[in-house]
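TASK: fixed-backbone design
INPUT:
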């Protein structure tokens, strides 16, 4: 077994050289690192990490499917026509003796929706803890410690996979301060995950009943909450952008399905969004008569 934690640089910071290529699950390297790749076998893992907003993050992992010397693939038209990894585009005369390429399994590999921060605490949990230089900044110390590939054993892989799963379940909004850049990357599902974990943010006494519930017509409800204080069922729809009339119709549809298919009564509709489009403000604010309500979210300024 030979699994590794591998650092990489974004193409725009690396003379447009893109590798790993996550869209096709390939990764190539040469010289000493190429020799290391030759020791990787089917079923091993490669975890890739890079700097994002002054921190280090794991952004993807490959469950290795195949490993080949690049020179052995240049006459294979199926490989050459299908893949665009830069190592496969070289002339055979330009190849290094150990130039190697890895193909990740498309089912078991993953590009992370929510990158996992590689912080000092995580590194201390690995079987071979990284030694950080106390005279450097945290980012510089972690980057230096991980400049050479870090070998991982079975317990390390299990730990990382568990942390990745938990991190993606929590989403980006996990009671930490976001940078301005990170705010722009927040998705509806991040807001959904945060509310699912913290339903009381919408009101006292709220409890999660269902998340991403699929009805018989294949429509999908973001969240279903119970108001334990008022004995109400609350249908919650989350929108990243300002809303219009169609959201009211969507909520009424979900409310009807909750009554018909789930047997609930005393149902209230709630949309969580950053605001209402001007033309629809009166219509949506007066939708309270139909037991449909709007809650607005925003971002808090902090200075650090």
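OUTPUT:
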């Amino acid at each position: 077994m030979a699994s590794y934690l591998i650092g990489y640089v974004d193409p725009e910071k690396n003379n447009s050289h893109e590798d790993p290529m996550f869209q096709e699950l390939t990764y190539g390297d040469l010289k000493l690192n190429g020799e290391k790749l030759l020791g990787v076998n089917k079923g091993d893992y490669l975890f890739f990490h890079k700097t994002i907003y002054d921190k280090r993050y794991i952004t993807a992992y490959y469950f290795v499917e195949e490993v080949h010397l690049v020179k052995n693939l240049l006459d294979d038209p199926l490989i050459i026509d299908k893949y665009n990894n830069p190592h496969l585009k070289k002339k055979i005369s330009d190849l290094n003796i150990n130039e190697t390429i890895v193909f990740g399994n498309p089912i078991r590999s993953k590009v992370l929706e929510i990158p996992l921060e590689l912080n000092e605490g995580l590194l201390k949990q690995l079987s071979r803890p990284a030694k950080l230089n106390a005279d450097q900044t945290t980012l510089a110390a972690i980057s230096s410690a991980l400049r050479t590939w870090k070998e991982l054993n079975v317990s390390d892989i299990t730990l990382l996979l568990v942390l990745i799963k938990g991190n993606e379940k929590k989403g980006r909004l996990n009671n930490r301060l976001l940078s301005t850049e990170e705010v722009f990357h927040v998705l509806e599902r991040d807001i959904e995950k945060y509310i699912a974990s913290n339903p009381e943010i919408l009101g006292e006494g709220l409890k999660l009943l269902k998340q991403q519930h699929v009805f018989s017509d294949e429509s999908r409800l973001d969240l279903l909450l119970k108001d334990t204080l008022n004995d109400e069922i609350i249908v919650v729809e989350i929108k990243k952008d300002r809303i219009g009339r169609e959201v009211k119709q969507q909520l009424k549809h979900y409310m009807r399905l909750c009554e018909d298919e789930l047997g609930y009564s005393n149902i209230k509709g709630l949309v969580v969004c950053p605001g209402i489009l001007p033309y629809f403000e009166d219509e949506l604010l007066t939708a309270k008569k139909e037991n449909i309500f709007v809650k607005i979210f925003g971002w808090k300024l902090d200075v650090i």
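COMMENT: The domain at 3-170 is CATH 3.10.590.10 (ph1033 like fold).
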